[in-house]
Amino acid sequence: GMADTYPAAATEAGVKAGLGVVSCRVTATGELTDCQAAREDPANLEFAAAAMKAASLMRMNPWTAEGDPVDGLRIILPIKFEWQGPPREPAEAVKP
User: Fold this and answer.
1) Which among 4, 41, 47, 68 could bridge 20 via Cys, Cβ 3.0 to 4.6 Å?
2) Do residues 2 and 81 make contact, with C-beta atoms less than 8 angstroms apart?
3) Model confidence, pTM
4) Residue spans of the chain under pLDDT 50
């Protein structure tokens, strides 16, 4: 599922790496919810949106190393993207 999160705008621009940073709340079961885009680099290539999609696929340990629950904790999650597949074909224009 993670390979499908690489932003199409980046591949269409020929950009093979980027960073998306999101801020998410952790639930008692380790799910990441209420995610918000924090930043992306390079800008305007949908890396923050891709990071939000990737975060929805992730789970984290709902306990700290000390045994404390993380339910309700807001985390900052940086996700580095690297395209390692073949070049994507550009989307065909829709004909009227």
Assistant:
1) 47
2) no
3) 0.79
4) 93-94
